[in-house]
């Protein structure tokens, strides 16, 4: 009994589903490590829309710029790149609801049970943008959202917020929650994702970004932090002088 | 557990549904500080497509699947929740382990609300103390002792149980808001102390010879892996030693589907697991240790036919019974920007000053009409702006007014996500069972959570949040917005990831799934380890108690079970 076999023996093949190489691994004797296994984020490259049509892109720029409007003190969401951020997210795993639970039946439940849409975010955005223009046209002499005055745009956004703007197969309030979150994410996320351009939102509130070491600051109380933000893939100091 | 058993000479194979995780490939400091990737897109977490739950507030409703996470987060990969936690390292108070006996003796049985199913643990604080100590020294815990072998110590938590020796490292330095909180609390007659922290206050080499570095207060703890090797986690405390241990093997990306029992159902003969090709394998074993996260331990028991599933109508069965979470509330305090600058980004998962004056039964509940409590404090975990841009209640959520309020308050408000960390006691109508409709990717029924807050927890939350707000006002806030826990349990509203219970421990097989050593009453060569053993949840973060219970059980296996395999407690 001084050396019991605990969990051992020869594994037994019971069922074969595929002959593809397995990603399941066995680790023993040493920590597994391979060079180049890290996966830094891929920087968003500015350019044409990946998901939105040009008309949709203009509408989203107009919407986000009312949600976070420009003012003399800080950037608006359009100039910060929030629409580009949302476009790239909708073109990727987020837009496809990748990794989320997608088995039916789809039943609308209580607020506490959370969103139950069968439509992925990309499809919800497409339908919502169509509905927003239809609602704008219906209430404002046939004009699409981008052609409305700011106050009228705010009224349309208010109708998304209070759920009175109908979107086919979508719970409008759930879409609003997603739109508001995505806009703020684009505004405040690391600029590597296409929003928060030039770290403008971070500079505006005084957030130093990805600095990662405040050892000298933990017990300096009530003092202004003096350093500009840095991002994962950029810092003002890293830029060539000519482009400053 | 795996390390202790392999040291005892056993061959150990560990199975993990997710991948191997390590600092260099999963969260190196060059890109670890990425709020969007880790906090919002949940890079290190289980995906609901892999496994989720259905949820309802009460048995009259139809449970619906949790399609994306909200109220709690589940780790995925080697290290589990110990990778992404804040490292808030609390011991439970001694009376917690005798909760029903204690409350009955002090207030009488009638004081316990109808339907509340709290019970004693079957193990005492004194029995667990050496194991608490061992876990704290493994993790390098930073703190100030409040009770050394019965002698109350200045600056520590006077309500804690006696500890056999001081914390292994001194308490963390404190930021501005925590310092103001401690001063205000002290002046009000409370007894503030630094939160015990698994984020290092100095370099530390643990008893296994693994070294952690000092915390740099980067503000990326909870939801993130630590790129600095300064947060206690399996990666930074034990895995480098464990993988070299002869007899130890880990299999990652392998999901255990069920525990295999012999024909009589009284002995586990191994487990069936599936690899990423969808191939099912059977792994024979002499001893099976279920060490998954709380609801997955319970699910494995249910899917394997170990024990009887709880039926709330018939009041039969114990598997799934006494499931609990946490009753967290907070208050946001706004200060004059001309005089207060908090630099909220200078943060760590577990720096802050707390009080325990309103936790457990540290105060007289007699006139208050509820049981339970929680610690409260200023714990500055982050100033990450997607998550943390506090604005006064009533501010529009968008437009120029929202934007002005964000700018005004970002650096002059204090917001503590778990400002008030309240208990969640157990009830006969809060439980886990198997969903009749929704299935996982292998066709197995999802676990169904039936959970809601009760009047007792609402009363407790209102009382605790009021006490907390008083202290924030005394700090000099110009405005305090209270956020007590009200209404129904909401699966979209993050509280903590402290799901507890469902396979609870106890002295009697009639009211527990495992005995005082976390050994199955039904299948003696099966141990079920984790917060699934908690009969109810206290007003603390649970991990240190999980660590203590694990060492307690390891000790029982090595020193008792292996010498005479069989039930360690006679039913």
TrEMBL record, chain A:
Keywords: Signal. InterPro entries: Gluconate_2DH_su3. It comes from the Bacteria. It holds the Pfam family Gluconate_2-dh3. Residues 1-24 form the signal peptide. This is Gluconate 2-dehydrogenase subunit 3 family protein. It comes from Lichenibacterium minor.
Automatic annotation (TrEMBL), chain B:
It comes from the Bacteria. It holds the Pfam family GMC_oxred_C. Keywords: FAD, Flavoprotein, Oxidoreductase. GO terms for molecular function: flavin adenine dinucleotide binding; oxidoreductase activity, acting on CH-OH group of donors. Residues 214-327 form the Glucose-methanol-choline oxidoreductase N-terminal domain. Residues 436-549 form the Glucose-methanol-choline oxidoreductase C-terminal domain. InterPro entries: FAD/NAD-bd_sf, GMC_OxRdtase_N, GMC_OxRtase_C. Belongs to the GMC oxidoreductase family. This is GMC family oxidoreductase.
């Amino acid at each position: 009994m001084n050396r019991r076999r605990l969990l051992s023996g020869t594994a037994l093949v019971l069922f074969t589903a595929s002959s593809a190489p397995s990603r399941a691994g066995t680790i023993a004797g040493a920590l597994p490590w391979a060079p180049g296994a890290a996966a830094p984020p891929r920087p968003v490259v500015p350019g044409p829309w990946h998901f939105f049509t040009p008309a949709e892109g203009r509408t989203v720029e107009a919407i986000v710029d009312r949600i976070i409007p420009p003012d003399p003190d800080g950037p608006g969401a359009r100039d910060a790149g929030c629409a580009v951020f949302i476009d790239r997210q909708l073109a990727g795993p987020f837009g496809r609801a990748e990794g989320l639970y997608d088995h039916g039946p789809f039943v609308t439940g209580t607020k506490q049970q959370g969103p139950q849409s069968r439509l992925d975010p990309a499809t919800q955005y497409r339908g919502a943008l169509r509905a927003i223009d239809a609602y704008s046209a219906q209430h404002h002499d046939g004009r699409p959202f981008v052609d409305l005055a700011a106050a009228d745009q705010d009224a349309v956004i208010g109708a998304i917020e209070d759920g009175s703007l109908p979107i086919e197969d979508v719970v409008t309030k759930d879409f609003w929650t997603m739109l508001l979150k995505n806009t703020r994410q684009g505004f405040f996320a690391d600029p590597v994702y296409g929003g928060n351009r030039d770290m403008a939102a971070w500079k505006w509130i005084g957030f130093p970004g990805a600095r990662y070491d405040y050892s000298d600051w933990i017990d300096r109380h009530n003092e202004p932090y003096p350093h500009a933000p840095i991002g994962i893939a950029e810092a003002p100091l890293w830029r060539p002088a000519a482009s400053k | 557990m795996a390390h202790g058993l392999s040291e005892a000479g056993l061959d150990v194979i560990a199975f993990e549904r997710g991948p191997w995780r390590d600092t260099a490939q999963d969260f190196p400091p060059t890109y670890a500080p990425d709020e969007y990737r880790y906090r919002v897109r949940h890079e290190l977490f289980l995906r609901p497509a892999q496994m989720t739950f259905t949820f309802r507030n009460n048995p009259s409703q139809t449970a619906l699947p949790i399609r994306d996470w909200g109220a709690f987060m589940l780790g995925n990969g080697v290290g589990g929740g110990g990778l992404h936690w804040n490292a808030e390292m609390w011991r439970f108070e001694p009376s917690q382990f005798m909760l029903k006996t204690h409350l009955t003796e002090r207030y009488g049985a009638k004081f316990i609300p109808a339907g509340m199913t709290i019970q004693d643990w079957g193990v005492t604080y004194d029995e667990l103390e050496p194991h608490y100590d061992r876990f704290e020294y493994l993790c390098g815990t930073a703190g100030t002792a409040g009770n050394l072998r019965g002698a109350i110590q200045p600056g520590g938590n006077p309500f804690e149980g006696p500890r056999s020796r001081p914390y292994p490292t001194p308490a963390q330095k404190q930021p501005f808001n925590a310092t103001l909180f401690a001063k205000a609390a002290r002046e009000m007659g409370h007894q503030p102390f630094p939160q015990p922290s698994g984020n290092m206050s100095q370099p530390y080499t643990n008893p296994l010879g693994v070294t952690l570095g000092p915390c740099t207060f980067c503000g990326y703890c909870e939801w993130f892996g630590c790129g600095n090797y300064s947060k206690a986690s399996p990666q930074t405390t034990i895995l480098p030693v464990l993988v070299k241990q002869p007899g130890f093997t880990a299999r990652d990306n392998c999901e255990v589907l069920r525990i295999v029992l012999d024909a009589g159902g009284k002995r586990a003969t191994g487990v069936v697991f599936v690899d990423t090709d969808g191939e099912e394998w059977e792994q024979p074993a002499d001893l099976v240790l279920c060490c998954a996260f709380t609801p997955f331990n319970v699910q494995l028991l249910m899917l394997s036919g170990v024990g009887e599933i709880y039926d709330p109508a018939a009041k039969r069965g114990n598997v799934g019974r006494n499931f609990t979470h946490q009753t967290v509330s907070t208050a946001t305090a706004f200060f004059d920007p001309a005089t207060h600058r908090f630099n909220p980004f200078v943060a760590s998962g577990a720096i802050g000053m707390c009080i325990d004056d309103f936790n457990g039964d540290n105060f007289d509940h007699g006139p208050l009409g509820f049981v339970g409590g929680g610690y409260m404090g200023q714990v500055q975990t982050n100033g990450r702006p997607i998550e943390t841009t506090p604005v006064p209640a009533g501010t529009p959520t968008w437009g120029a007014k929202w934007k002005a309020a964000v700018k005004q308050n970002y650096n002059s408000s204090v917001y503590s996500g778990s400002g008030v960390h309240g208990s969640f006691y157990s009830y006969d109508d809060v439980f886990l069972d198997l969903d009749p409709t929704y299935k996982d990717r292998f066709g197995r029924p999802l676990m169904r959570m039936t959970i809601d807050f009760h009047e007792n927890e609402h009363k407790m939350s209102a009382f605790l949040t009021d006490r907390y707000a008083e202290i924030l006002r005394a700090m000099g806030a110009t405005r305090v917005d209270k956020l007590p826990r009200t209404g129904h349990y909401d699966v979209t509203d993050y509280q903590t990831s402290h799901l507890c219970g469902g396979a609870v421990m106890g002295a009697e097989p009639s009211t527990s799934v495992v005995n005082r050593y976390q050994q199955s009453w039904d299948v003696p060569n099966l141990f079920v380890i984790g917060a699934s053993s908690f009969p109810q949840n206290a007003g603390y973060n649970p991990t240190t108690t999980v660590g203590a219970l694990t060492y307690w059980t390891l000790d029982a296996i090595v020193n008792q079970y292996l010498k005479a395999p069989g039930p360690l407690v006679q039913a």
